[in-house]
Amino acid sequence: MKRLMPILVAIVAVNCYNVKVRPNDGLYILKNESSGELDWWQNAVFYQIYPRSFMDSDNDGIGDLQGIIKRLDHLKDMGITATWLSPIFKSPQVDQGYDISDYYDIDPDYGTLKDLSQLLEKAHALGIKVVLDFVPNHTSDKHEWFLMSVNKTKGYEDFYVWHDCYIQDNKTIPPNNWISNFKDSAWEYHPQRNQCYLHQFAIQQPDLNYRNPDVVKAMKDVLRFWMDYGIDGFRCDAVNFLFEDKAFSDEPRSYIPNVAENDYSYLNHIYTLDQPETYDMIYQWREVLDDYTKQNKTDTKVMMTEAYTTIENTMPYYGLSDGSRKGAHFTFNFNFVRNLTKGFDVRDLTNCIERWLTYLPSIYTSNWVLGNHDNRRVASRFGTQYIDALNMITAFLPGVMITYNGEEIGMEDGEVTCKEGHDPQAIKNCTTFPNDSRDFERTPFQWDNSTNAGFNKGNATWLPVSKKYKEVNLAAENVLGLNSYYNVYKKLLQMRKNFTETANFDSISIVQLSKNVVQLVRKTGTHEYDLVFNVGDKNESVQFVNTWGDYQVVVSNSNSSYKTKDIIKNNNKTIHLGPYDSVILYNTLTVSGASQFLKVSYTMTGNIVLMIMLNSSDLSWWETAVFYQIYPRSFKDSNGDGIGDLNGIIEKLDYLNETGITATLLSSIFKSPQFDQGYDVTDFKDIDPVYGTLDDFKELLTKAKDSGIKIIIDFVPNHTSNQHEWFQKSVAREAGYEDFYVWHDGKDVNGTIDVPNNWISHFGGSAWTWNEQRNQYYLHQYFSQQPDLNYSNPAVLEAMQDVLKYWLDIGVDGFRINSAPHLFEDPDFGDEPLAKRHTEYNISDYNCLDHNSTADLDDTIHLIYQWRELIDNYTATNNVEERVMITEAYSPLRKQGLYYGNGYRKGGHFSSNFLFVTTVTNPTFNIKDVTYCIDEWFIYIPEGYIDNWLLGNHDNHRAATRFGKENVDGFNMVIAFLPGIMVTYNGEEIGMEDGEVTCEQGFDPQATRNCSIFAEVSRDFERTPFQWDDSTNAGFTTGTPWLPVSSKAKQVNLAAQNVEGLSSHYNVYKDLLAFRTNFQNKFVVDVLDTYSLFDNVMQLHRRPDDAEYTLLFNMGNSSESVDYHKLNDSYEVLVASVDSSYKKRVAVNFAVSRSEFFYKLQTLREYRTPNDRILINYVLCDPFSTKKRDMENIFHNHG
Ligand SMILES: [Ca+2]
Ligand SMILES: [Ca+2]
Ligand SMILES: [Ca+2]
Ligand SMILES: [Ca+2]
């Protein structure tokens, strides 16, 4: 960490005062799967050849094996050591060779077995391994196995997945509801056998029955045959489809709206994808390969798998995370293909890399795929200016690199018409062909500028050769000394040869140097390499993070001003980058500085966030606060009408005080018809009578102030109630109010007036409603009872500023800006484009459109800044304590930063962080989801702003329900421990779960209008009354509560938990708040590390100034013994969860043995008392001795 500091200090010095600075530095330490040397494949570049388009030797227009043989010298020239070939087996070519009719023979299009032997011999002589495509899920329906199975030939009856089915009215009634990838039932009736067979893909591709041991054996025989033949490994196609549920259960609906019943995505494929038996089969194949290697003493036969699935389901294809069973040597990493898109920035790139490395178990070898025969070419996906940089990044990152043929010369997509196309799914519909076809990335390789780019001798080619071949071809680029894509690519492959020391030590860290520049630091063995990449289109000069010594340029992109072998001197660590420049540097001193990289025998992945605060004693009250969100309606009812109110809150101020709460957020309490629970306001300056009076509110402010508690109120600026007098006046076109709302005449469509555009409201359906009286449409981004105010009207701006001033004068401590992103709309009222994933939604669903005209507009952001200035001016003019502004924006994370500020102007003091609510949602979430969620926030939120963490609110299911009640303490600890502000929704401190509410009892307007979806969408469950004690109505009211009190209140209530010395959620929560009081606001330097320790345990480690704190959280249901990162030997337990075997204030001596760790952090190697496995639940540890540690000293002593 020391190396980072000088630069950070420099940033602080020029930037600002009293601000925390936090670069995002993800550090991953990688371990070699085997303990010795790197195996041949671990650092290899696998070059994917698409045989049909590589080289045509006999001039029939189709590439072939003899063509590949002819061009092997090209692979050799690049420095390629391994290639994998798309399918070349005998096939009727219904699905481009993925329908195989003979696993043991070559399709005549490509040649013969003899040609393959020749290819292997020549490739091996050149030191190139050859991997073949293995298509295991299905065969062609022309395969003899299938023909015999149809005939029930003995031994083949059950080779495929057969099932009885019925014919009714000439229609097949299939055994269950399964749907094929290519639409319609996955079952096909076969009249001859009078049964149905399963096909997860085309009808001509029947699924093999892997529950039949004969099939398993037959397929293993195929693997052995090809290994005997001399093949070096297999790329296994679509492996996640191998097994299906034994019971043939119907799959549940996905509930993705507007998907036709015969569409693949209509169902949630829990019974046909990623089955446990599927993973087991992959592990068995690995055993076949490993056994073969061992018995025959050959080089490793490698297996790579293709599975487009979630990241959680992807990793087990590698094997179990502890390595006790192994699967593929690597399973394709499609992150760059699927999650990186045109216009990406540094954060997107960082995110993409870190996401993969976070989830990858540290014992496995990473891999990086930029493209393949199923995805558009890199140059076309991102733009030609990115070709070098992306090749550099994939070459630079640790592990296997995969290159699709043509990417090394920067080939773009070819030009193919629907008529010329061959992609079987795409040519069925010529209108969608330009979007859907995969022919563009499959056009012939461009070798030179002769006829047909040298692909053949001039006969028609199966797909047209791209017109660009005259400029873009290998011969033109392969000129010594020329700045070309190809020469950059070649240098990269040479550089990678130095990465073979990975076996000893390998780490990668990712640092965002500025908004547009990222630096990757790779330390392998004794070498240090640095890649610096300017993603933006402007010149950038940045200081890069460095150790010591001069830096030498290894390779730079073809337009760079840096040339190979240029030196950047030790005393000048500034690098000047042109637009899209990327440079790889080598630290010339690292060989002699080798001692800094100690051999690491124990590794784990981790991310480090480093923070520096200057003059932290000057922190304002809100920067260290716990904000407690009160939902007034359900908190405490003082007058027996069943609805919580202001006097109820006043009654409970002592409770807040006793708990340690210093600030509250009150959900909307303004005058309202309560159609949307107070978010439809009729008077912004008055309190709704159900909550009390303005005087009650003033009393609350006074009493809260006496208790040292701040009161933040909701501000609902986007819309009013349709019963607001402003709206009434606007409808009547009263002078001064005509343009208070967003009115529109509508669009004349052939004489009929239609809505002005396609905008959709948050709750579905058009965002426009016709008003008869005014004879115009008005806009409502929410319900039609909530018309949008017109912010282009200066009178509206003034009226709303007036509201803010009014409440500031009354004495509120701040505002939470409701629905901040939607204030302004595009004044042109143009249609919004369809969202990328629009097909997953109903056409009237809000998610169907990209909201580039109605959300996050520049004008909206600037208005937020104006309001911040108004509030800051008020604070300054009146010389009062700081008033704060909090913004609510469920915007993409990359936009969230703008609500904080843009570097010149300030926005919200903080913008609510909804990541724990929106991303840790899967019921099977694991520790990596949580650590990733934390990392992601740090990646996207710019330096200089204070972080914030919340688990839930009145719009999302309760944390105890989402995460499990046994995880309540753990999650409260996480958000209390992380740097920044903690936000708690009332009830979370006692672990309240969702209440039980029926549709008839409910109030949420979007839910009660349709009882069939009530359970799914209602927000009433998290709004049931607070559970104070076990009396009637849980002590919430003496009357009838507006929403029923949860039946769990008898067990889960404050009184039962608030007992001195009792181990309870509430007491844990109180301890956490006390811990924060002593902890949060004191540091000049603060470092946070996030670690996933094994599958279920996470560690958060903070090293502020002279202290050290650690949080260990076991999210699993079994005991775990873990090695964790530490600096000291003796610790004291500060807080332990309700079920923990550890007790508060008990000393723990964890010192057993130590090993050196990266940057001198010491990690406890092994902690295991004989015969005793200790359950480390959630333990917050503080080192016993908090003696001042001289950080400089620590670094120097070990450096
Ligand atoms: Ca040919
Ligand atoms: Ca299957
Ligand atoms: Ca009341
Ligand atoms: Ca608006």
What are its keywords?
O16G_dom_2, 33 helices, alpha-glucosidase, 49 strands, EC 3.2.1.20, 1199 residues, alpha/beta, binds calcium ion, GH, disordered C terminus, GH13_cat_dom
Question: What is the gist of this entry?
Answer:
The chain has 33 helices and 49 strands. It is α/β, with parallel strands linked by helices. The protein has a 14-stranded antiparallel beta sheet. Strands 14-13-12-6-3-2-16-15 form an eight-stranded parallel beta sheet. It has an eight-stranded parallel beta sheet with strand order 38-37-36-30-27-26-40-39.
Distance between the termini: 11 Å
The hetero molecules present are: calcium ion
Gyration radius, in Å: 32 Å
As laid out across the biggest beta sheet, the strand order is 22-21-24-19-18-17-1-25-41-42-43-49-45-46
> If you average the pLDDT, what whole number results?
87
Estimated share of beta-strand residues: 15-25%
Count of individual helical segments: 33
Number of strands: 49
Q: What does the largest sheet look like?
A: 14 strands, antiparallel
* Helix percent band: 10-25%
Shape: globular
Structural class: alpha/beta
Low-confidence stretches: 1-24, 591-605, 1151-1176, 1184-1199
Pfam families: Alpha-amylase (PF00128)
EC number: 3.2.1.20
Protein name: alpha-glucosidase
Catalytic activity: Hydrolysis of terminal, non-reducing (1->4)-linked alpha-D-glucose residues with release of alpha-D-glucose
